[in-house]
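In response to the reviewer comment on reproducibility (Comment 2.3), we provide here a single inverse folding case reported in full, input and output, so that an independent group could reproduce the run without further information from us. The structure tokens appear first.
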């Protein structure tokens, strides 16, 4: 049996699906990071620490380890090519809440990939995982990223002041949330 047969997949359309990430995705993800450092560094604090395929493998090992119950990571596959990551962070089964985090290759921007991916993740969180609350945090000024929760009907809750250390200084994060009852009424 192929290991891919046991991985969770969220099919979106004929060109796009999300597949549970594995260590075997390290080379493809690192290639995106390494070739697009300047672009990704603007909003992602981990870019400079991702300095080899081995480091990316170690990250994926920790995120996909059997004991990790607070994260669920997916690669975004568009036209059979890995183009980014999307995942659930801080999964809290007791309080039925989680956060979605994501990043996408610069050359794949503007195709609706991230909006479709987030829609699939929200649907999975509410329908399959029985969550009550989904939140997304976005760097203040990252308009491309903040458009995602806005288009999906999330509510703006406020700003976490100096909540992320990025490029040598602290940055504010916008917080957006969506409740299951709000999703069901859309």
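Designed residues, in position order:
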């Amino acid at each position: 049996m192929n290991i891919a047969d046991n991985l969770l997949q969220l099919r979106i359309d004929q060109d796009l699906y999300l597949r549970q990430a594995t260590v075997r995705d390290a080379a493809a993800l690192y290639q995106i990071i390494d070739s697009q450092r300047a672009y990704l560094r603007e909003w992602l604090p981990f870019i400079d620490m991702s300095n080899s395929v081995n480091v990316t493998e170690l990250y994926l090992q920790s995120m996909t380890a059997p004991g990790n119950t607070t994260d669920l990571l997916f690669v975004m596959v568009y036209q059979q090519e890995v183009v980014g990551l999307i995942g659930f962070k801080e999964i809290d089964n007791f309080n039925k809440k989680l956060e979605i985090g994501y990043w996408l290759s610069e050359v794949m921007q503007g195709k609706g990939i991230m909006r479709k991916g987030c829609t699939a993740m929200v649907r999975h969180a509410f329908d399959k995982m029985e969550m009550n609350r989904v939140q997304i945090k976005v760097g203040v000024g990252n308009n491309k990223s903040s458009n995602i929760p806005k288009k999906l009907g999330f509510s703006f809750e406020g700003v976490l002041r100096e909540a992320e250390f990025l490029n040598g200084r602290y940055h504010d994060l916008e917080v957006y949330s969506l409740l299951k009852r709000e999703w069901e009424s859309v």
